[in-house]
Design brief:
With 193 residues, the chain is mainly alpha-helical. Helices cover 66% and strands 0% of the residues.
């Protein structure tokens, strides 16, 4: 599910900026790139395991995915609101997988036994994985509108005003209240899992 980026430094929606960029407007392309980079970096934060972060920074992977996508901007098929964000998320996810495969192929040369693990205990890692799986499962049972609110706030760090824009609510307060209801549904479903 894709969440559209709210308007930022250059006016217009991402779809408008996309049309302008395809027409050759470099300022629109820069604004679109900047807007998507910020949103995708927030979304991708923490998706690269800590053991892999020394070799590759998440922000670098997002930047590479954006550059590759924007080089082929005319090939992108706009399928409606949120399509670009969903497409870019998939590109970042693919880039993360590629990076993990690349790192796993590289043999480890030396272990420094004096450095304590930053990852926590094996039990902590298992519990974190189980929580993430329960979250994803419970989220998938919610309506698309509720999913958009939750992902917008928890994964993209959107404000009430931004949630208002992407969900077309009347006010930021209405978006906040809808988010609260969606979070309560999510918590209830996670508790019963």
């Amino acid at each position: 599910m894709g969440i559209p980026s709210p308007s930022s430094d250059q006016g217009g929606t991402s779809r408008q900026l996309l049309r302008q960029a395809r027409a050759g407007d470099t300022r629109a392309l820069s604004a679109l790139f900047r807007r998507q980079r910020i949103a995708l970096t927030r979304w991708a934060r923490g998706r690269l395991p800590r053991w892999a972060r020394r070799l590759a920074d998440t922000a670098d992977l997002v930047q590479e995915a954006l550059l590759q996508t924007f080089r082929r901007l005319n090939a992108f098929e706009d399928r409606g609101q949120g399509a670009l964000q969903a497409y870019l998320r998939q590109a970042v996810q693919n880039r993360l997988r590629d990076e993990l495969r690349r790192i796993e192929r590289r043999p480890s040369t030396e272990l420094d036994e004096d450095v304590p693990s930053q990852d926590g205990s094996p039990l902590d890692l298992v519990l974190d994985g189980e929580r993430a799986a329960r979250y994803k499962q419970a989220l998938s049972t919610l309506s698309p509108a509720d999913q958009m609110l939750i992902v917008g706030r928890l994964e993209m760090d959107y404000t009430d005003e931004q949630l208002q824009l992407i969900t077309e609510r009347a006010t930021p307060d209405a978006a906040r209240k809808a988010l609260r209801r969606a979070l309560l549904k999510l918590a209830e479903r996670m508790a019963h899992d």
